[in-house]
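Continuing from yesterday's entry. The apo prediction looked reasonable, so today I'm repeating it with glutathione included to see how the binding region is handled. Same sequence as before; SMILES copied from the compound registry.
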Amino acid sequence: MKLYQTYASPFPTRVRLLIYAKGLEVEIIEPPGFHASTEAKGDYLQINPIGRVPALVLDDGRTLPESEVICEYLEDAYPEPALRPADPWGRARMRLLSRICDVYVVMAMVPLFNLSGRSRRHWDPAVIEAAVGKVAEALGYLEGYIGEDGYAVGGGLTQADGAIVPQLVLAAEWIPGLFGTPDPLPGLPKLSAYWRAVQSDPIAARLIAETRDAVAGVAAQAAAQAKAAAASA
Ligand SMILES: N[C@@H](CCC(=O)N[C@@H](CS)C(=O)NCC(=O)O)C(=O)O
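Holo prediction written out below.
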């Protein structure tokens, strides 16, 4: 199998959790044209007409976009070790936490992703403040459902951890670091305790390290592009 993805994006990260935990043989490919790159997506649109990462290509050539769908496929096709709780309520909680990340946390960050690609003179403090407030509100939804035993749900690593950990790198590290805004976690004790504890899981730690490195790379690339654009203006 092949996974088209980038390390800075939270969506493929949740797929990599399954790949690592299940020990699957998957070639990782980073298509051009994502994040701060100026390249067009080109041939990638033939692999995923939606034009987003991730996309999984099976050995027989069939292709699947959308991170949640890919995770559910891998879970069904390679059930061991299970990364879904066994009971229906646990599974519902896992899906709920993942959905909160997709629908509320990421969407709240979009204005900040957009600003990060622009020179600082375009950074409107009111836009930043509003977006940071929305991110804190969305993290508050996670606070209401997050597990209290070191994992998102069910006392062990699940798909929900793959959805949450990259979001916390972005929300608790990247946003305060880049925009100089407060760390949102101190007001969220359960999420803070989770964030501290999950980092001792080796697979979560690997995903966190990969996300941190990739986000730093994208930030450096964006800063260089903004500097070049300012110099030529
Ligand atoms: N619902 C999709 C969202 C995927 C997504 O939005 N990926 C972003 C990267 S964070 C992307 O590919 N954006 C298009 C772009 O950067 O041009 C999924 O869960 O796979």
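Comparison notes:
- Residues 44 and 224 are 25 Å apart (CA to CA).
- Residues 9, 11, 34, 52-54, 66-68 surround glutathione (CB under 6 Å).
Will overlay with the apo model tomorrow.
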